[in-house]
């Protein structure tokens, strides 16, 4: 597999071998932002005026997000950056790791800002253990990281599903708040993060495109169908029916 083949030139960036992968890296670099750029000062007032079921769903979504970026990073650090030998892709993964840390910090700040009860805060920060619907998504991703028999191609598809399918419903639900003019800090950070995750998902698809030995269509379909089922279950759990207009 060319992407994974021992590459003695991996320590030097030029000459560029994979121009499309390099362009993705430059695109990611140009989108850099930090948590300090997001103003949360108006959010608390809005938070207090939300209905209980709206607060319930936002805290579920934030709890999932707070944990998920760390899981994505675990995969990048433990597996992908060690397997892929192409310098341009390593540049992208290195930058993605930095951005996932910023996302993680942002979600932790959001929970910290909105949730004043220390017990509830702990519950949300430990969602992987405390919330079954979050645990299920986390376990699915962690199993893929730990699977020593799965080829890189299968795991690329699985993590495209994590950043594409597992995130998209939650992003959409926060955009619904934006449409209503609520929670400007949360909705602005959501725009930035959803843009980043869209790029990460596109990058996974680009890596898949470059694979010579791709997993079978049947294998890919199985991974995606599985991820969709878990996401449907999560959204059914996190989004109370009473949220009209969602």
Automatic annotation (TrEMBL):
<keyword id="KW-0215">Deoxyribonucleotide synthesis</keyword>
<keyword id="KW-0408">Iron</keyword>
<dbReference type="GO" id="GO:0005829">
    <property type="term" value="C:cytosol"/>
</dbReference>
<dbReference type="Pfam" id="PF00268">
    <property type="entry name" value="Ribonuc_red_sm"/>
</dbReference>
<keyword id="KW-0597">Phosphoprotein</keyword>
<dbReference type="InterPro" id="IPR000358">
    <property type="entry name" value="RNR_small_fam"/>
</dbReference>
<comment type="similarity">
    <text>Belongs to the ribonucleoside diphosphate reductase small chain family.</text>
</comment>
<protein>
    <recommendedName>
        <fullName>Ribonucleoside-diphosphate reductase subunit M2</fullName>
        <ecNumber>1.17.4.1</ecNumber>
    </recommendedName>
</protein>
<dbReference type="GO" id="GO:0046872">
    <property type="term" value="F:metal ion binding"/>
</dbReference>
<dbReference type="InterPro" id="IPR012348">
    <property type="entry name" value="RNR-like"/>
</dbReference>
<dbReference type="InterPro" id="IPR009078">
    <property type="entry name" value="Ferritin-like_SF"/>
</dbReference>
<dbReference type="InterPro" id="IPR030475">
    <property type="entry name" value="RNR_small_AS"/>
</dbReference>
<keyword id="KW-0963">Cytoplasm</keyword>
<dbReference type="GO" id="GO:0004748">
    <property type="term" value="F:ribonucleoside-diphosphate reductase activity, thioredoxin disulfide as acceptor"/>
</dbReference>
<keyword id="KW-0560">Oxidoreductase</keyword>
<dbReference type="GO" id="GO:0009263">
    <property type="term" value="P:deoxyribonucleotide biosynthetic process"/>
</dbReference>
<dbReference type="InterPro" id="IPR033909">
    <property type="entry name" value="RNR_small"/>
</dbReference>
<keyword id="KW-0479">Metal-binding</keyword>
